[in-house]
Predict the 3D structure of the following.
Amino acid sequence: MIAIIDYGMGNLGSVRKKMDRLGVESIITSEAEEIKKSEKIILPGVGHFAKAVNEIKSRGLWDLLSGQVLVEKKPILGICLGMQLMAAYSEEGNAEGFGWFDSEVIRFKVTDTIKYKIPHMGWNSLEQKKVSLLLNGLSTESQYYFVHSYHVKCNDPDDILATTTYETKFVSAIQKGNIFGTQFHPEKSHGTGEMLLRNFINM
């Protein structure tokens, strides 16, 4: 069972459809007991960082998720804003995140504003930085769908799973033990995204 965390912000339906397509039992939930019973967790998200923090806390999920991830060592995949929430701090709303990674979330800064628009939106490839089951079987030519105005800056290079170039390099995937995050949307990345989600499910 995969628990897809519902805190009022995110592509919940799209993630659930991908789970159905992969033949995996999943539930969209904000119920503590359902989350505790799950084998893995997906933390999706679209929108404002500080608002997301407030929504998660208001539902009583903040400490619960940290316990499941840090104490129970349950595998979790953060998607887009869900990945950013794993950082210690974000410029977006000057808010503190879970702090599972020694990192900050900063706004994109580009010099060529004609060629590079913010938000960064579209298809890009990854440069894998370390071996991970999450990217098993995926080629360097694989394309992933992005839509975001902020990105994660990791202070520990060992946490960086992959980078992507959009004028300059930015962190597009992170991993530390059982904690995984992707800045891109695997649920919108067609067959490539399905393979990545299957890798997460099969861990």
Notes: Residues 190-201 form the longest helix (12 residues).
